[in-house]
Amino acid sequence: MTTVLENLAALLILVAAFFLLVGAIGLLRFPDFYMRLHAPTKASTLGVGGVLLASMLVTLAHGHPGFAELLITLFVFVTAPVSASLLAQAALHLRLHSRAPVPRDAVPERRTAEE
Q: How many CA atoms lie within 13 A of 48 on its CB side?
């Protein structure tokens, strides 16, 4: 049983490494901030989640529960999308231009000095 869990953990690490590699390539190849923000956020969440699930399987194979890995995985799955959303909102607020068409109502209007 231990060998099966360790082989499954190795497979999860390979899948996670693939997602992390795709995220890194997307970070380098995409042309603007918004696209560069999207690729590593999604890929790193899946990559780190896969590595932590593999770690949980290895600790389970040795007879220890993987509560710490589970909590870290949940923390990453909650915080990565929130931080990416906040970065995108800050870029919109600073009127950072994108090469992709942005709907007009997505950009907040600046207040005038009279208000």
A: 18
- The pTM of the full predicted model, rounded to 2 decimals, is 0.72
User: For the residues of 20-68, what is the DSSP string, one character each?
Assistant: HHHHHHHHHH-SSHHHHHHHHHHHHHHHHHHHHHHHHHHHHHTT---HH
* Tens-place pLDDT, residues 13-68: 999 999 999 999 988 888 888 888 888 888 888 899 899 999 988 888 777 888 88
114 φ, ψ (degrees, to nearest 5): -75, -25
